[in-house]
Amino acid sequence: MALPVWILAALTASAQLRARAVPVVPAVPVAPLAGALRAPALSPLLSNPALPTAALPTPVSLSPVGERAGVRGPSPYPLPQRRERATTANPAKAAEASQTMERFGPAFAEEAALAAERLAGRNLTGAEREDAVQRTKFVTANLWKRLFNEFGVMFSYPDGVARPDLSIELTRRDPKTLPDEESHYRALFAHEYTHRLQFEGHVTRRFGVEAPPVAVELLRGIELVGLDALHAGKIPFITENVLGAFASGRAWARDLAAGKAVDAGFHFKGAMAGAAWELAQRTGRLADAWEFVRRVSSERSPEAPAAVYADIAAR
Question: What residues contact 33, with CB distance under 8 A and at least 6 apart?
């Protein structure tokens, strides 16, 4: 069977391309090339005072992340401008976000005070509570923001984000989708404010950056709605995966109480809260759970989880 004309033409063109000689680029020695870059002909471009200075790049200060990590170089993301665009791209959504913030601002001031006292042993002043509220805002994650954002390409956006400049963003959800709107945002803010305490140097990251914040969100969730309600989905961002890790932390505490060998740390988000909750169930004092989290999560005077558990349980 004869091939169609267009296939024959494509094969012929391909053969002609392969038959052409490919020019070989001669290797260039490194030393002469380096010398060429230092040639006098380039110096007028570098030192000519007649060049307009506006054409030269302006210096950019280090981002807070770079300063803490010792990384020299500007941040590629101008955070304040990006956050402003996220909240004002749609005026109606921006108004809804602002109204939500007005409603829950007083609750966030309370949560900041609780977290600071329980985790850092600090009593926030009125000005510090106001600062925590002023640095918090709601954002609306539209389709574009869910697909392309600073966290990579994904099909979702975090429920909350805490940044090294001590600001906090909470993703606003449709109130109709939240079984308990206030409890949802209280627990979420408590999580993100714990990240702020990490940036301030009060709370550790030695078990992973998320271990203490998740412990706080779980314990606050239990205080607000109860453990059974968490399993029922009353605070939607607390997922079954996290509650499964919570159960593993409870098992860790039971093994420790039984004299079995246990891990030295908590490697799953939620495990620290589970151990703290099991301790509170044993002693009958919820304050013991918070003391356990504070002492284990301390950045300035960390203690081993097993030793802290044994000390509190022996009282």
Answer: none
Contacts with 265 (C-beta within 8 Å, 6 or more apart), sequence order: 206, 207, 305
pTM of the model: 0.70
Strands 148-149 vs 136-139: parallel, antiparallel or unpaired: unpaired
Domain boundary among 203, 224, 257: 203
- The pLDDT of residue 158 is 82
Which residues form the domain of 309?
207-315
Nearest to 308 by CA among 160, 297, 300: 297
Chosen domain end from 184, 203, 222: 203
CA 3 to chain centre: 60
- For 80-91, the pLDDT digits (tens) are 443 444 444 578
Q: Which residues contact 256 (CB under 8 A, 6 or more apart)?
A: 262, 306, 309, 310
Confidence check: pLDDT of 53 > 50: no
Q: How many domains does the chain have?
A: 2
The full DSSP string for 13-30 is HHHHHHHSPPPPPPP--H
Separation between Cα atoms, residue 20 and residue 43, nearest integer Å = 42
What span, in angstroms and rounded, lies between the C-alpha atoms of 183 and 235? 7
Same-domain pairing of 244 and 268: yes
pLDDT value, residue 203: 97
- Per DSSP, the three-state class of 127 is helix
